[in-house]
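request received
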Amino acid sequence: MNSNSSLFLSRRGFLLAAAGVAVSTSMRPARAAAVDERRIKVTPAHARLIDTGGPQTTVWAYDGTIPGPTLRLRQGQPVRITVENGLDEDTTVHWHGIRLANAMDGVPGLTQKPIGPGQSFVYEFTPPDAGTFWYHPHADSLVQIGRGLAGPLIVEEAEPVAVDRDFVWLLQDWRLAADGQIAGGFGSAMDASMSGRVGNVVTVNGTGPGDRSVKAGERVRLRLANASLARMMALRFEGHRPVVVAIDGQPCDPHEPEGGRLVLAPAMRIDIVLDMQGHPGSRHAVIDDFYDGLAYTLTTLAYDAAPPLRTHPLGTPAGLPRNPLPQPDLAGAERQEIVLQGGMMGGGKLKGVGGMIGMGMMGMNGGAAWAINGMSMTGDGHAGMAPQFTLKRGVTCHLTMRNETAWWHPMHVHGFSLSVISRNGSPVPHRQWQDTVLLAPKDVIECAFVADNPGDWMLHCHVADHQMAGLMTVFRVT
Ligand code: C2O
Ligand code: CU
Ligand code: CU
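response:
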């Protein structure tokens, strides 16, 4: 498959490229050939999301757990994942952020036939990039992700990174009814045309706001992933100074976030290095204060009583090794523009969506509430989606995304990582690459990527309601 693309180097080739050296004796090509075999089953299940004392919440889950099992893969090692569908409806799995062959991307109609009830599908890929990713369905996404289908996908660096502990917090937002069950009303016109289905319970790895125990003096790598349908988050670690080392799986220059806030929109990931500088026995809240006046404690870091692991604080963490991303050539780039339109403006009016749309049908039953460049593609993906633009393989695409709406949109590109160049005319620092770029109302973002991976690729808002209601498009690389 695609053997002439830089994305699909063998492990041996990858190591050579990464190290920039001749073959060393430590290479074991025999091992490179070994395929990592995994199975995941999608089924209804029960989970104790919050302690109500009442019955558990009925959810949909990977292998019966919320979130799904953490898939820890190795950079450059082929993996084969068999997904079995035990639901009563079609599903697929999308490996969010992994640069892989188009046929493995999990978009129903566009890249594969959906996996019917009782059927399975075998996904095969070799992750070229180390980092923090996640997996989720791309069929009936609003309902399936909203009922719990999401799991962390970690690709380990060839050489382990020096930290005392490495763990992930997969964050999920749930809209629960008074009886503790998942509320109905998915895809309401209001959710679709405004901020999406924001819920009322947030879990960290499937549980409510309990304590996370930590040790004084330890250095941890914490991988944050926002698997919410719609909830934006801005996390503050009271009494701590997190250092961002990767965004959307891709290493960046280590830096402290502005105002100490980690802004994490749906589908985004941020890896931080956190030095536990609190006193033994102390407690520190982790607060999400994205929405004005709606701050809440996500969880609490609870130090155990043991004396500090080390007496002197460690220095600034070193950057992670960069992934083998092709460097955009801006001078020779092809320019494309994506304009985000629509949404409720107040007074029940939609802006910019195909002329007049009555209140009655807007965003309802798959109706459009949003558009990209005047076109509304709704749903999860289907056959025959005409590409918005076509790129010749190998060209650099200089992509401008312009948000003309009054709402926030985490715009996600399948199959590629984008080098983020500027936001509203100001250069974006820290050499950031992202697959999910958050646009505030009226933001203009410029980014670039090398179109080295052929196929039809999705580009959509990751607020699931927005995607379903038209904030989605497709581009082609030939
Ligand atoms: Cu996280 Cu279209 O995907
Ligand atoms: Cu994706
Ligand atoms: Cu959106």
